[in-house]
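sanity check this record:
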Amino acid sequence: MLKNEFDQLKSLSVDAGYSRLADLSRRFCQAGQNWSIVSVNDSGRGSLIYIDRSRMQRRGTKVLYWARLELIDDPTYDYIIARWMADCSVGTSVAVGVFGYAGGRVVATLENEAVAALTRTSAVPGSIGEQLMRAACDQPEGER
């Protein structure tokens, strides 16, 4: 979605182009102070993965946390935010809510029955899922 908007910069004057680029950059880079970068993938489509350390909830070895995925040239979403539940003792996780955003609004959700159908899976070694689970599980309780 953002790729189309960045492509339109070519047709603008230099001043208008820089102004529009600044607006797009602010919109794309506004994850906020509570989001910590977990992964930057500049191969292929490119993405940024964040975890919200301020909203993590722990119960024993289980952690409930929010993750944010920003895809640089996704035609549908500007970013996706998902609520994850990880069981750190066995290394499994499951998404309990997934929300796709475009233009600053939720445009798609995957909750309730659809999410209930998802099974807890072990994180694939070296995957973004493993990086997120490690970031959530390795954070000491009470630290934000």
Remarks:
- Residues 51 and 105 are 20 Å apart (CA to CA).
- The helical segments are 2-7, 14-28, 112-116, 128-137.
